[in-house]
Amino acid sequence: MEYSILADSFEKMESTRKRLELTQMLVELFEKTPQEVISKIVYLIQGKLRPDFEGIELGVAEKLAIRAVSKSSGIAIKKIEDEYTKGGDLGHAAAVILEQKTQTTFLVENITVERVYETLFKIAKLEGSRSQDMKIKYISSLLNDANPLEASFILKILLGTLRLGIAENTVMDALAIAYSGNKENRKLLQNAYNVSSDLGKVAETIALEGIQGIEKFKVNLFNPIRPMLADRVKSEKEVIEKMGEEFAIEYKLDGERVQLHIEGDKIELFSRSLEKISSYYPDIIEKIPKMVKAEDAIMEAEIVAINENTGDFLPFQELMHRRRKYKIEKAVSEYPITVNFFDVLYCNGKDCTDLNYIERRRKLENIVQENEFAKFIPMTLAKNENEIEEFFENSINAGSEGLMLKMLDKPYQAGSRGSHWLKLKREYRNELGDSLDLVVVGGFFGKGRRTGSYGTLLLSTYDENTDTFPSICKVGTGFTDESLDQLYQILSPKTTIKKNPRINSEMDADVWFEPELVIEIVASEITLSPIHKVARDEIRKDTGLALRFPKFTGKIRVEKMAEDASTDDEVISLYKGQNKAAHDKNLI
Ligand code: ATP
């Protein structure tokens, strides 16, 4: 398939944000796509090469891309940098530069989607000392044969700046229309995606086998399932209103969620955002398969750091010590953990997601052999507020952050946040009503004791509608010397020459970061703001929302991607909730 077809579609898609138009453009693109290329097209649309859980990252830095453009065009690096800083992104700058070049070159060979994809794949796999030079060689050879428009999109994919604003749902709508003629079949595609987390595979299946193939889609070992999530509630009373007569309550442990895929001795661990995390937990890899009394299983658990002497749960950030590549054995012995199981999704070759909560819990208790290292999350059945209150107190005293409440007769709904699971956290009773998970987008250099680190950070929410990161506050409190140091280590490799176009902020930070890192923040209230961009024009014209007295809680949410951060809609609902509470108080 000629790559120019894809590049032309990308150009059209960039010119609109309207979901219906994007769907139509995708349908047209899919209709021109041969079946054997469809999965590649679906990954490339999302700026990826494979599903996230395979961990294949292009990871090309701006500087390297600029060198490749220079090599291919013969134009000096400085000139390319100047063009880049003038405006637009690097893809656009390269198109302008290469436009000048093609006026003097006549040898342009058509490039195919397959060639672009294979080359990008090779680049992603390169490692070792000579990898930089090899990357430049591969990129410039592609650029040599690309026209300026094609080149600009190759660079955008390489740099991770391709932003077509196409949500997964839109891709599924278009696949349903293109391959079954009926948008309603989207629901079936959604199920297939929820159990496989692989949109390329879903696309290939419907292209090759039609809707029948999609209906047969099954849970597969070592292919992570999109996690079921919970709605938040603020009080025991709300729980009773929403949960009905009798329900299960479990401790909400403050650790890292893990999905364990086990077959005999083989085991793989996936995080909440479905990344492979097995290398951080060699103790789980070694011990857990021996404790499972089943041929194979997919289970969910919360990994929690513990105090070895007392057995008490320790806060989430203790697990951060495990996030290292080297000397992991040392971290394993210094920072012990327990694995606390709460669900089973697959067992002995059978999908368990259709079983109800009680059946799954029973099965779970039958297949895991409990001991000091592997436990079941404490659970009880409850009917009224007093029972919830009592279990809540116990859970807090044991060092957990609250309760999870689960309906007894409901299946495991992969990939959905709904009312079948609720969460009641301790923080929900604090000033703002909740903590927020925000994306670090900019930094300001510290003074005094904080010299050499970022003393203050600029934070954003995630706006799902525009796929951007609007700023919400600057935060400079809540940091310890250790956390400042740790944040500097994580953030400094993420600095960019220019602000990523997805960051929506009027502030001038000292440095800009790729919007990737998520941290947890508490604040005293949400106020109207003329500067910040969250919910701009939603409550009042030319005004956004901001956090008052924000404070870092110490939690770096490594398991969350930037797109999992708190959204504008959540901030608006907290803002409205807070105003309602203030109003109610005045009435008393
Ligand atoms: P949060 O920011 O509250 O951790 P989240 O967005 O990560 O929320 P939610 O579905 O809202 O995910 O909350 C559930 C999270 O709580 C899970 O992702 C898991 O890590 C954790 N957890 C702790 N105990 C349990 C439990 N008993 N059952 C399910 N999840 C639990």
TrEMBL record:
It is an enzyme of class 6 (ligase). ATP binds at E250, R257, R272, E302, F342, R417, K423. Its cofactor is Mg(2+). It comes from the Archaea. It catalyses: ATP + (deoxyribonucleotide)n-3'-hydroxyl + 5'-phospho-(deoxyribonucleotide)m = (deoxyribonucleotide)n+m + AMP + diphosphate. Residues 330-463 form the ATP-dependent DNA ligase family profile domain. Its EC number is 6.5.1.1. GO terms for molecular function: ATP binding; DNA binding; DNA ligase (ATP) activity; metal ion binding. SUPFAM superfamilies: ATP-dependent DNA ligase DNA-binding domain, DNA ligase/mRNA capping enzyme, catalytic domain, Nucleic acid-binding proteins. The active site is at K252. Keywords: ATP-binding, Cell cycle, Cell division, DNA damage, DNA recombination, DNA repair, DNA replication, Ligase, Magnesium, Metal-binding, Nucleotide-binding. One of its GO terms (biological process) is DNA biosynthetic process. DNA ligase that seals nicks in double-stranded DNA during DNA replication, DNA recombination and DNA repair. Belongs to the ATP-dependent DNA ligase family. HAMAP family: DNA_ligase. This is DNA ligase. The gene is lig.
